[in-house]
Structure formats: C-alpha cells, structure tokens
Design a protein that fits this description.
transport; alpha+beta; about 550 residues; globular; 17 helices; three-stranded antiparallel β-sheet; five-stranded mixed β-sheet
Length: about 550
C-alpha cells in the first residue's frame, strides 16, 4: 500500500506512543487551570485572557498547526469555547483548549490572531451563542443580519420577539485608514446575491481599484437552516441521520452521514461490522466521484461557459453513479442509507447485476477521463483562466484550516482516510493525490485524479463483497433502540468528505438527544480563503477561484 507519510521531526509533547499530555501541560505551565477527558482528546482548561498565549505556544512549539473547529456552548453556570486543535502531519494527535467564561459577561481572547480560520468560527460563535471575543479583527454577525436581536443558541433566546432588518447603504471598506489621497478612486461592486455563478446564494462585496480587486468580503447566511439546532432536537438513534444528507445536498450524502455516524458510534462505543465497513467505503467513494463530477462540470461552466459539452458530459457520468447509488439506497440524493452500527440493508439482489453495473462504470471511466482532459485541462482558454490564478500558498492553507482538494492542490498532504483511518480505507491500496501548483488549475487536477483513486477503492471493495461468505454478511451491530451516552461525554470526529474535513462535535447530557451538536463544514473554512486568493486579481479570476473551491452554500451556512 502507498499510504505512508514521510517521517516528521518530533515536536514537544510527542513520544513514540503518541501525545504526552503531561508534557504539553508542563509546556503551558500555569496557563492550564484544569484538565478534562474527551473521547478523542485531552482538554486543557485555560483562562479567558490567556487564549492567545496558549494557542501560540501550542502552534509554534508543539506543532498544532491546524485549528480544525471552534465550538461555543452555554451551560447553566457558564459559557464555553472549545478550540479543537490537530496537526496536519498527524491529525490523530489532538488537543482541545477549553475556555470557560462567566455567565454575566461571556467573553474571551480571540484565537484569530494565531489561526486565521478562527476568525469566521468565532464570529459564528458570537452570532449564535453570544460570546464576545476580545481583540478579534472584525467581530460582528456572520449568518444573521447585524440588526438581529438576541443569539439563537443561547438559553434565554426569545423566539417570539419581532426582528426588524433595515436596508442600509453599503459602505466602501477601503475608506478611512485603508485609503490615501494619492490612491485612484475605488468602486464598490455587489457580486450577488444570486445563484448561478456563486454555487448557492452568496453575496460577494467587492472593491475594485481600477480593474483589480482591492478588497472582497464573502457575505453568507442566506441559506442558514438551523441544522445544528434540529440535530439537538433529535434522538441519536433514529431522528438525526436523515439531516446530514441535506448539508452538502448535491451529491455527498453518504459522506455526510458517515461524519455523524463516526462521531455518534465512538461516543456510544458502537463497533461496526467489517462487512458493513466495506459497503460504507464503497458507497462513500461513489459519492465522492459524483461530487467531483459535479464540481468539474460547474467549474467549466463558470470558467468558459460551456454548457452543451462539458457540463452535460459531467452530468452524464454523474447520472451513472447516481443510478448505482439509487440501486443501493433507494434514493438519488437524500440517501439516508447509513445507520448507527452499520447500514440500512445489504446490497440489492441479484447481487451479480449490481456488481456488473458497477464494474461497467469503472471500466469506462478511464476513457471518459481522457475526454475530460482533452476538453478541459488541454483547453487553452481554460489554462489561461486557471494557471497562476487563485494562488493559495501552503502556509495560508494551514492558517485558514482549508482541507480537501483545496489543501492538496497546494501540496498539503492531508487526507483523513489515510491520516486518521476509519472504515476500510487502511486495508486497501490507493494513493493520496497532491499537486504543487497552488492555483485553480491544480485544484481541478486533484479532483480529476481523485476520481481515479476512488475508482481503485470501489473496485477493491467490489472484489471483497463478491467473495464475502454469505453467513458473515453482517450489516448492523446490535445497537440499543434508545441510546443514552453518559453525561458530559464530549467528542470531535471527522471524515474526509468530497470537499474536505467534515467534523462533528457532540456533547451528551445523559438523555437520548445531544446537548450540543456542532458541524464543522469544510466549505465554511475553505470559503474564508477567497480574499487571500483574489487580492490584486481581476473579477474573472475571482469567479474562477470561487468555482475552484467547490463550495455548497447549504453546507457553509448550515
């Protein structure tokens, strides 16, 4: 197998057996006032006014260069922010920084000065929970209008109060200290909110200096659907699983379901049968191919407007995948196929026809990919629009917590299927795809090459399933009808979705429903990089960069 990463220098607090939390606590010294045990990692409790010192020390001296997620929540006696830290070189090395703040004045230092990705995460925490983040570069609402009254995830939120949203004139973000009298006049341009060119309802506030982009700000929240609140209102066993399909609603349903299943199964100590793991792995990679086909077709449509050939070619092949998934799950988009402890049912009968249909698709795929390279990557217009545009350095990738093809297109060798193994991936032969161009072209190449690797994985799964003894085809573990994990168990688990790291944080309170359910969307963090990619470029370059991120606003907003 080709899943080994090159060895990295040992950081402070790392031994041959993994993380040495005692050594990390010694490194932080008096900053640590308490310690908690979470299912996935140790939690260090720190003071609200020492967050930046703690995060900076862990990043520079202990190698925690990935702030995967920031979770905010309210208890009866306090508010709490949790910074979920990992390492790009080894995401199994995890640490949670827990920051309690008083009930009457919820605030703590911002982590955005250390990790750029914390910027949007903290804005969301302020918007929905109500925690203030001192020294934040731009603390304001992100999903709700600035005029919104209250914080919807706080305990005292009044759902019946009227909300008045005023129409205000857009201000030029370059006025004042960012603009001098010697600079040429700037022009403010609204790109959106509209759907076709923005992969959902997105508003990009753009400031032009001549023909070049001087400043842009993605304005999100138009599709906010309260998914976390709905999951907190549902039972672990039956009522949450239908929701993940609707986060990235275009083609990544089973990948989304697996993120929830992995977190809930580890929280409740559920072991999934090996046979069901193989089925999960096969179906997840079919979803990945469908997602990448959609990304390829829509990106070509964005870049040179080819609907009749490339867009329909991509949808033609995506439909074949959707047909296979429909045979397996009974649905074309909202699959609801995974169950805690396994899958809903076995492969369709007759099994031989299902295997033959899948193999026919895999056999034809190399020739179809050659067509795509002829039509797309070999196209001069496409190359002019994509090569050396939307450049995102590996350092910026890590600082913003970008993952998936966006990170791997900048040479960041990070894939949770290999680096934090789950399912059946560590038993199969496949490669993690990276490109070093750091531009829009490289991100397209990564997705096209990943389709080939997904096909390798699916073929091996089909071989295994064909030979699996009938008496050992166990599709579900013996899971209690009602799940009630122990009170105050906390976990953060993630899977490698088509667009990157899709993580779930769950805190249990001893009931059959989560006390806190937090979704770490890869699109949310990836979209933060758009200003970095677009600075000094032209509007057409920005459109290409936005398309190369392959975002879905239903997952950004949740």
């Amino acid at each position: 197998m080709s899943l080994e990463k090159p060895s990295q220098p040992t950081e402070i607090g790392v031994t041959e057996d993994g993380l040495d939390y005692d050594a990390l606590a010694d490194l932080l010294g008096g900053h640590v006032i308490d310690r908690e045990t979470h299912v996935n990692a140790e939690g260090f409790v720190v003071r609200p006014d020492e967050v930046q010192d703690v995060l900076s020390t862990l990043k520079t001296e202990a190698g925690f260069d990935h702030c995967a997620c920031v979770t905010a929540q309210e208890y009866d006696d306090r508010y709490e922010s949790i910074y979920h830290l990992r390492k790009f070189d080894d995401p199994t090395q995890e640490l949670s920084i827990v920051v309690p703040s008083p009930k009457d004045d919820p605030h703590n230092q911002s982590g955005a000065r250390v990790y750029d990705t914390a910027d949007w995460h903290e804005r969301e925490a302020y918007d929905l929970v109500g925690i203030e983040y001192d020294d934040h570069p731009d603390l304001r609402r992100i999903l709700l209008p600035e005029t919104w009254q209250g914080h919807p995830l706080s305990q005292d939120y009044n759902q019946s109060q009227p909300q008045i949203v005023t129409l205000r004139e857009n201000a030029n973000p370059l006025q004042g200290d960012q603009r001098s009298e010697d600079d040429p006049d700037t022009m403010f341009v609204n790109i959106g909110p509209h759907h076709p060119a923005t992969h959902g309802v997105l508003h990009v506030k753009t400031v032009l200096d001549g023909e070049q982009i001087a400043d842009i700000e993605p304005d999100i929240g138009y599709l906010h659907r309260c998914e976390e609140q709905m999951c907190q209102s549902g039972t672990y066993r039956h009522q949450i699983m239908p929701y993940p399909d609707r986060w990235d609603y275009v083609s990544a349903g089973i990948l989304n379901e697996w993120a929830y299943a992995r977190a809930a199964e580890d929280l409740a100590d559920i072991e999934v049968p090996e046979y069901a793991q193989v089925i999960r792995t096969m179906s997840a990679e079919l979803c990945r191919i469908a997602a990448h086909m959609l990304a390829l077709g829509t990106f070509a449509l964005d870049v040179f407007g080819d609907f009749t050939a490339i867009f329909q070619y991509a949808f033609r092949d995506r439909e074949v995948v959707q047909n296979i998934l429909e045979d397996l799950t009974g649905q074309r988009l909202m699959f609801n196929y995974l169950r805690l402890g396994g899958v809903a049912w076995d492969l369709p009968e007759p099994r031989e026809e299902f295997f033959e249909k899948t193999r026919d698709f895999l056999d034809e795929l190399p020739y179809k990919l050659e067509e795509y390279h002829d039509l797309i990557t070999g196209n001069e217009i496409f190359q002019m629009r994509c090569v050396d545009t939307g450049v995102l350095s590996p350092e910026m990738v890590k600082s913003y917590g970008a993952t998936g093809p966006v990170a791997r297109g900048s040479g960041v060798d990070y894939d949770l299927r290999r680096d934090d193994p789950y399912g059946y991936y560590d038993e199969l032969d496949w490669n993690v795809v990276t490109e070093t161009g750091c531009d829009n072209f490289s991100r397209v190449l990564v997705r096209m090459r990943e389709v080939e690797e997904s096909a390798r994985i699916i073929e091996q799964c089909v071989d295994l399933l064909e030979q699996w003894p009938e008496e050992d085809r166990e599709i579900q573990a013996n899971v209690p009808r009602t799940l009630r994990p122990d009170p105050d168990r906390e976990i953060y688990r993630a899977v490698e979705a088509a667009k990157g790291e899709l993580g779930i944080y769950i805190r249990s309170d001893g009931t059959d429903k989560p006390a806190r359910f937090k979704i770490r969307s890869p699109c949310f963090s990836n979209l933060q990089t758009l200003p970095e990619m677009s600075q000094g470029e032209y509007i057409p370059d920005m459109i290409a960069s936005l398309g190369s991120l392959d975002i879905v606003l239903g997952e950004v907003d949740r």
